[in-house]
Amino acid sequence: MHKQAYRAAALLFLAAGSLDCGATQRKEARDGLAVEAVISEREVTRIRVEDAMITGIVGKIHSASGCTASAESPATAAPVPSQGSSPGAEASITCDMSKGEVYLRPLGQGKKPINLFVSTDRATYTLVMRKADVPSDTIVLFDTSMPKSTRSGDGARSRPASHVKGIKSMLKAMLTERTPNDVLAEDVNVPLQLWREASFALTRSYRGRGFLGERYRLTNTSTALMTLTEQEFDREDAGVIAVAIENFNLRPGDSTAVYVIRHEEQQ
Known about the structure:
The chain contains 3 helices and 17 strands. By secondary structure, it is mostly beta strands. Strand 8 and strand 9 form a beta hairpin.
């Protein structure tokens, strides 16, 4: 009983943390503290700071385009050598000076995390980015220690508490052995193509409380350790709003449950 309660609590925490993981990774940041994020190992990742413009990027990077100073913005968005003159660079940076944001693409095949110092006119944040086989994404840093007057978008930053509560309630219903009366559950067995290294199937579907829920079973069929992230189960055209994974690290032959929640009206 205690094990089941712990499992439910852990997955509820994951769901709450995954509300923004679909199209955007929102990361609370503080000046001088490291923030961890996941980036695509093959695609471009957008990086921006909420209610602030990026004025500098420091790290083992090289500038691809757009990272030049202007009269209005004397600080460059990426103080790095010109293209082709950055031996040992771990990533290529493209800058959008008008918006104060940058676009990063990893260089090389290694799994070593990319470390950056991201500066605005108010603070400098440390960003540690782990590469994974995931689609392009956006990393948004937000600093709650800033005065409210400088955070004009604060009211829209987080979803209403009732919305978050509803998602947690739906996931809790998906975890119970006896589904509540207001949630319709159906056992299914639909094999799906995910990766060559994994067996993946939809095992149970849920409908109710304004949401659609799906429980999947993923098995590592490869001979190597498999590390999962929530972003790998987001479908851009399906309105995914939360993902919870029971076990993020799978040894060969291990399986895990994956829970996906969407808005019902987007079915």
